[in-house]
Inverse folding.
């Protein structure tokens, strides 16, 4: 499918009120400092109501989005700032965020028939790793795409330098609350929590680059596919994953183990060997500290837990993998965080990097990264014209990204979508794995849920 996107306007949006002088510096935390200046992107699809007048509607929507965005930025003012040259803080100078409007020469129903992942990039204002001087780069951008049918696709690009998924959702809850006339439900960002938990440093720990992931990337091309697991499939997987150690696995634990199992199987079939394997899982720390941190705390307040599997017997048992997943997550508790926070942050993070280096070296190319955005609230992003009919992460299927899985809700809320990136030959094996396909349905078309007021 070919799709032409024409940018009709591009501007910089600034907070509706200037940031007070005493709030001009947002100190980065150590995890922010170690995070690359790259954009994580989410795309929201809103179907249209064909009975409404398109030009009037779009003008009103544009005005509402801009006005409410400017007001939301006063509450999350670091997003309008710029990174300092020394990578220690954000200069909250109200330089602004990128706001783009565009026209798309296809309808949402046409796109939904075969939603090609590569086309998602066209809906986005910013892409990948920031080019040019980092201290001049936007920290947030939005692109409002108007389709020929009147449907709207909102593409967002957020710098992972200061925004994890929880920060993103907190900002959008605030923005949508303002846009829909509910200012009492808008949040004020907490700009102190992250740097208090993990104070910044003028020097980086050894092997800080390992925070970005496994340095041992598999050769070959990457293949990115989306699979849907409905409620019945997830219930079966939870039953199959039960064990004495994990009598009641969660949906995410069971699905993580299931995908990991079949990725291991594909890798072993291709290589003819039975090497050990590992999964690294990203997890929100805000509720794993005492006292808990508010959801609107800005920054990378997340940790990574390793689950390992070193059994070399030919058949991999789902329950064994789920036990490893549960154990790795349970170890990251309040007591663990006490050892790596505050004055102990630099040493604690350095020890994690040392352990990560050992695991990556041992597992080599058999490490998988799992990210769960399940039930985080992405389908609650309603600017006043209804909930999105579909939400997707960006295309991350270039050859540098392999062994990556992102899980999030289905539009109905009953199932889970998994976006999986594997080496292309391994993906081909996975797509023919009948045991895998008994639970996983390849997403060949998009079914938009809900009723829009557009």
């Amino acid at each position: 499918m070919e799709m032409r996107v024409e940018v009709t306007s591009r501007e910089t949006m600034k907070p509706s009120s200037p940031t007070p002088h005493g709030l001009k510096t947002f100190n980065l935390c150590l995890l922010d400092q170690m995070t690359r200046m790259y954009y994580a992107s989410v795309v929201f699809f809103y179907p249209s109501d064909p009975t409404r007048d398109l030009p009037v509607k779009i003008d009103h929507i544009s005005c509402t989005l801009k006005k409410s965005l400017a007001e939301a930025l006063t509450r999350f003012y670091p997003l309008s700032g710029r990174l300092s040259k020394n990578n220690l803080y954000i200069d909250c100078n109200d330089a602004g965020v990128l706001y783009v409007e565009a026209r798309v020469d296809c309808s949402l129903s046409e796109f939904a028939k075969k939603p090609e992942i590569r086309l998602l990039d066209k809906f986005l204002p910013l892409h990948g790793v920031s080019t040019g001087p980092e201290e001049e780069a936007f920290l947030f951008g939005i692109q409002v795409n108007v389709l020929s049918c009147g449907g709207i696709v909102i593409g967002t690009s957020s710098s992972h330098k200061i925004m994890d998924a929880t920060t993103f959702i907190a900002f959008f809850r605030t923005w949508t609350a303002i846009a829909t006339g509910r200012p009492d439900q808008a949040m004020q960002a907490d700009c102190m929590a992250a740097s208090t938990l993990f104070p910044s440093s003028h020097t980086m720990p050894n092997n800080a680059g390992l925070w970005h992931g496994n340095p041992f990337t598999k050769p070959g091309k990457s293949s990115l596919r989306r699979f849907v697991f409905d409620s019945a499939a997830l219930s079966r997987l939870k039953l199959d994953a039960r064990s004495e150690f994990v009598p009641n696995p969660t949906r995410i634990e069971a699905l993580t183990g299931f995908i990991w199992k079949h990725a291991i199987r594909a890798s072993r079939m291709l290589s003819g060997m039975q090497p050990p394997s590992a999964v690294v899982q990203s997890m929100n720390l805000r509720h794993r500290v005492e006292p808990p941190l508010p959801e609107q705390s800005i920054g990378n307040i997340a940790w990574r837990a390793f689950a390992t599997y070193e059994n070399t017997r030919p058949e991999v048992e789902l329950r064994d993998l789920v036990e490893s997943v549960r154990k790795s997550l349970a170890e990251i508790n309040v007591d663990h965080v006490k050892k790596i926070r505050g004055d102990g942050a630099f040493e604690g993070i350095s020890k994690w990097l040392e352990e990560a280096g050992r695991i990556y070296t041992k597992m080599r190319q058999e490490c998988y990264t799992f990210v769960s955005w399940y039930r985080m609230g992405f389908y609650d992003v309603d600017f006043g014209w209804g909930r999105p009919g579909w939400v997707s992460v960006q295309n991350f299927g270039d050859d540098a990204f392999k062994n990556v899985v992102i899980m999030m809700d289905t539009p109905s809320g009953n199932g889970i979508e998994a976006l999986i990136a594997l080496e292309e030959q391994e993906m081909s094996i996975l797509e023919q794995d009948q045991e895998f396909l008994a639970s996983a349905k390849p997403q060949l078309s998009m079914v938009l849920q809900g009723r829009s007021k557009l």
